[in-house]
Amino acid sequence: MEQAIEILFTASFWVAAIRIASPLIFATMGELICERAGVLNLGIEGIMTVGAFAGWFTVYSGGDLWTGVLVAAFAGALFGLLHATLTVPLGLSQHVVGIGVTLLATSLTYFIYRLALPEVTSPPKIEPFQPWPIPGLSKIPVIGEALFAQTPLTYLAFITVAVVAWVLYRTPLGLAMRAAGENPSAVEAQGISVIGIRMGAVMAGSALMAVGGAFLTMSAFNSFFFEMINGRGWICIALVVFGSWRPGKALVGAILFAAFDAYQVRLQQLSGGVVPYQVFLMMPYVLSILALVLVARRATYPKALMIPYQKGER
Amino acid sequence: MTVLRLSGITKRFGPLVANDDISFDLKKGEVIALLGENGAGKTTLMNILFGHYVADEGNIEAFGQLLAPGDPKAALAAGIGMVHQHFTLADNMSVLENIALGTESLWRPRLDRSLARRRISQLSSDFGLAVEPDASVASLSVGERQRVEILKALYRDARILILDEPTAVLTPAETDALFRTLKMLVANGLSIIFISHKLHEVMAVSDRVLVLRSGRLAGERTTARTTRRELATLMVGQEVTPPKVAGVARGEALFALERVSTAPLGSGAFLHDVSLTLFAGEIVGLAGVSGNGQAALAGLIAGTENPASGKMLVRGKLVGGWSPRAALDHGIARIPEDRHAVGTIGDMSVTENVIAERYRSSPFCRRGFLDWKAAKHFAEGLIRDYDVKCPSPEARIRLLSGGNMQKLILGRALDPEPAIVLANQPARGLDVGAVAYVHGKLLDARARGAAVLLISEDLEEIVALSDRIVVISKGRLSAPSGRGERTIGEIGELMAGHSEVAA
User: Fold this and answer.
1) Are A220 and A15 in contact, with CB atoms under 8 Å apart?
2) What is the pTM of this model?
3) B165 — pLDDT class (breaks 50, 70, 90)
4) What are the residue boundaries of the structural domains of chain A, listed by start?
5) Which tens digit of pLDDT belongs to each residue from B470-479?
6) Separation in Å, CA B367 to CA A4, B328, B370
7) Which of chain B's residues have a Cβ under 8 Å away from the Cβ of A176?
8) Fewer CB atoms inside 10 A, N or C side of chain B?
């Protein structure tokens, strides 16, 4: 028992928690942007898969790491464009389109992977992002190591949260995005194109989701394998709700979830096989459901979320 | 100086011509009233002007410049502001955010809130439009929301302001405040187009009246040199006579609420310690601004809601197990507030809709099977008796106009000769002819000895029909007043929530 608590004060635990949180932060911010503009993007799971592959494959084919990140973002934005075209101007069901995009993006990725690398048995590796300790700050015990001795992509994840929050609450663009998610006819009446705002938000959000996927292959691990997103996209959907559609709260949620995840791995080792390991695996999910129930009940969701906007309709 | 010129505007929706060759000019500092019944094409015309629709023919010039069609942005840039009938505000955002939305380039790195706040306060105090810039729109009253809509236009330096049915949702006091604001705006050189179907308002605010009838300009009058009667005739195309209310002796108490309260449910107000008795041969008018508990009271009578405390009596007997079916069994007829959402099932036929309340029993149901012959016979009878214009009893009901739909609902409710009639906004959105028809039918029911509860936001309707008037405000009822006892002004005060000085 004592050991179980001691874990919480070790630097390695917090380093792992922040590392696990990073892809979730990117993808949660991406989903949050989409939903704030009024579009539920269930393509997230597939778009993360695309990003994971596109980034990794760029580097594997000889590109440098940052080019890989850009290619991943671009690929994500393309699938975002597909999702947005179907859901925004055409006004199709966001649920159906989202699941369709996830299935298409995932299968297409696996297909291209097999076409490009037909004969591998063990996944080929790349040289991933290395930790980039920030001089001075990284020397602070526990916290310094956890927050300031990570890879550059983790720093980028935190910067993304700040940028998303700034854009949403401090800029005219963010105002228009939030209004598009609250009452699109208000946006239209003020002379702004709802279609343009929503499509832009879905594309930008999808790009962020793809970067979240790329983190897995280019920073957390060093290769691409099937099923590697493993439901992280769906967790991000829940994290947006948990965060009541606010970037700061969603960040806290992502770190909390990641901490549970890192914790359960360590508890598994402690228990020495007495408790079935599935119980620990289950823990973060059970706790997130509990947290959702407690936190999200009072959340005010964007009023026009999932409601397609058709111009000139009354 | 002419600020706006519409020339030959025509707009068709399929076979329907919504606007037929409409032309007029608007001058600087002038208030034009666009008068017409519902469906006359007023809102369509303004939506073309503001760029929500594209006209099939004709063009619009603002300040001498041709206006690009179908682009609200062009209209805004030309200085045209529109206050829509259904507000276009984002509820969960602040007043300031709603007003500033879209006024700055989207790519600016920062929204200047303090500048926006200063300008809003300046405009508020200049034109008597008091609002708190940082309040959330969700917390505002309807009157305040309208002020935000007007501020939105002024913030963009609108020189032409279009108001679509602005008074439909206001209390009389709020309406007066709006009219004062409009006068100030005109004094500052703005021009206003005021859309309404209420004659007294048109007479009160406008310089010139344009009357629209079935999509055409039926006439143009200078307000100072016309009368309400003349305008009404232009609007309808024939003389309208108000219904004659004959005296009917009041009978026994058919329905009573004794100190009833309801549980808070949803967004509407709930009832608080309400007592009300409906007598045979009497129309009781319930006046009030929408959202003050009318929905709860109507739900209570219709059976969709149950009292949390207090007693409910039908013919002096306490009712238990209250449900919509129990209400029907007790002889309560319902004319619901929203005929599209609640009153009818749009994609089902006229026949299916008119038997919806009685399909379980004879004559429409025999040994557990529907008797379609009887149903169709009944539907055809209603179509004939209530003068419903519809292609056939098989037509889907949503294809009917509001007036015809309402006539069918009336027929369904009144044909079984119910003892108690709940008429919730029975004439809302209907044209003058249909309104007179609905009123006539309610008076017939009263003459037959039914107890009628008329819920309406239209004070003139309430005053014209009701034998007794009660006012609802924040879930509480005022003391009743008899025919002619209170003036419209006094009722308006009660609607605004000012309780009466102890008499």
Assistant:
1) no
2) 0.78
3) confident
4) 2-118+143-296
5) 999 888 899 8
6) 71, 21, 8
7) 101-102, 106
8) C
Residue range B204-216: mean pLDDT, rounded: 90
Architecture in CATH for domain B243-331+418-503: 3-Layer(aba) Sandwich (3.40)
CA distance B428 to chain A (A): 18
CA distance B97 to A170: 10
- Average pLDDT over chain B reads 88
> CA nearest B165: which of B175, B156, B173, B155?
B175
Q: Which residue has the tokens 């630097």?
A: A11
Taking CA atoms, what residue in A is nearest to B53?
Answer: A312
Contact criterion met (CB < 8 Å) for B52 and A183: no
At residue B266, the 3 state secondary structure works out as coil
pLDDT level of residue B148 (50, 70, 90 thresholds): very high
Tokens read off for A20: 């696990």
Residues of A within 8 A of B92 (CB-CB) are 182, 300, 302-303
Q: Do the chains contact at A186 and B89, CB–CB below 8 Å?
A: yes
Contact at CB, A192 and B102, closer than 8 angstroms: yes
Distance separating alpha carbons of residues B352 and B373, to the nearest angstrom? 12
Q: Residue count of chain B, please give it.
A: 503
Closest-CA distance, B53 to chain A, in angstroms, reads: 6
For chain A, which residues score pLDDT lower than 70? Answer: 1, 311-314
* Residue B101 to residue A192, Cβ atoms within 8 A: yes
Q: Which of B53, B73, B97 sits opposite A191 (nearest CB)?
A: B73
Task: Quote the ipTM score.
Answer: 0.88
Which residues neighbour B378 within 8 Å (Cβ) at sequence distance 6 or greater?
Answer: B351, B354, B355, B363, B364, B415
Q: Calculate how close chain A gets to B353, using CA atoms only, in Å.
A: 24
Parse chain B into domains and list their residue ranges. Answer: 2-236, 243-331+418-503, 344-416
Give me A202's structure tokens: 């879905």
Q: How many whole angstroms from its chain centre is CA B157?
A: 30
Tell me the three state secondary structure of residue B51: coil
DSSP string, B357-424: TTTTSTTTEETTEE-HHHHHHHHHHHHHHTT---S-TTSBGGGS-HHHHHHHHHHHHHTT--SEEEEE
Length of chain A in terms of residues written:
314
CATH code given to domain A2-118+143-296: 1.10.3470
For residues B83 and B166, is the Cβ–Cβ distance under 8 A?
A: yes
Residue B473 bridge partners (DSSP): B476
DSSP assignment of A71-106 equals HHHHHHHHHHHHHHHHHTTS---HHHHHHHHHHHHH
**Distances A59 to A47, A114, A119, B400 between C-alpha atoms, Å:** 18, 17, 19, 64
pLDDT score for A121: 77
pLDDT given for residue A269 in this prediction: 82
Query: B216 to chain A, minimum CA–CA distance in Å?
Result: 22
In the beta sheet, which residues pair with residue B209? B33, B221
Residue B266 is predicted with a pLDDT of 57
- Domain at B2-236: CATH architecture: 3-Layer(aba) Sandwich (3.40)
Residue among A197, A307, A311, A310 nearest B50 (CA): A311
Phi and psi at B389, nearest 5°, equal: -90, 105
Give Cα separations from B381 to B165, B376, B436 (angstroms): 36, 8, 21
Tell which residue, B183, B125, B186, has the closest CA to residue B159: B186
pLDDT band at B499 (very low <50, low <70, confident <90, very high): low
| Burial (Cβ within 10 Å: 0-12, 13-18, ≥19) of residue A306 | middle
Q: How far apart are CA B477 and CA B301, in angstroms?
A: 15
Backbone angles phi, psi at A162, to 5 degrees: -65, -40
Alpha carbon separation from A310 to A90, A185, A195, A313, B137 (Å, rounded): 9, 9, 9, 6, 24
Task: Calculate mean pLDDT across residues B91-116.
Answer: 92
Q: What confidence tens digit (pLDDT) does each residue in A285-302 have?
A: 888 888 788 877 777 789
